[in-house]
Amino acid sequence: MKLTMMAIVSLVMILSCSAYSAETKKITGEVVDVSCYVAEGAKGEGHKACAIACIKVGEPAGILEENTGKVYVVVTGDHSSPAKKIKPYVAKMVEVTGTVNERGGITTIDIKEIKELESQKGGEAKK
Fold first, then answer.
1. Is residue 95 assigned to a domain?
2. Considering only Cβ atoms within 10 Å of each terminal Cβ, which end of the chain, N or C, has fewer?
3. Alpha-carbon dihedral sign for residues 28, 32, 34, 36
4. Residue 65 dihedral angles phi and psi, to the nearest 5°
């Protein structure tokens, strides 16, 4: 009886933890500064200089997912500056893989891999 109860408790704990665990995901989208995108819909090459300036002073950067329009706020698990990682890609289309968390309507991504899409290199980002 004790063994059965311990097995049930262990299973419940495992299922509970997995329900709240982070998900590794690959997304494709444009790097935007979240503040201007949310307030004004600003994005693309025409907004690049402003976005870089905003991110440089601490405004959050995000990935605007191409297919869904969902914004993933860029964070770092080690609490280093997300701006250093993302600034070279502002207003560009990228493919990122990272750990995604969602809580209270906010979705974040801790980027593990990032690459600029070939179709965007040397060209203009989509508006």
1. yes
2. N
3. negative
4. -65, 130
Assess contact for 26 and 45: CB atoms under 8 A: no
Residue 1 lies in a domain: no
The CATH number of residue 66's host domain is 2.40.50.140
Q: In Å, how far are 19, 77, 90, 95, 97 from 74, measured between CA atoms?
A: 22, 10, 12, 13, 12
Q: Using one digit for the tens of pLDDT, what is the confidence trace for 81-127?
A: 999 889 999 999 999 999 999 999 999 999 999 999 986 555 443 33
pLDDT in tens, 23-69: 999 999 999 999 999 999 999 999 999 999 999 999 999 999 999 99
DSSP state for residue 110 in the 8-state scheme: E
* Total number of domains in the chain: 1
Cα torsion angle, 111, 51, 89, 81, sign = negative
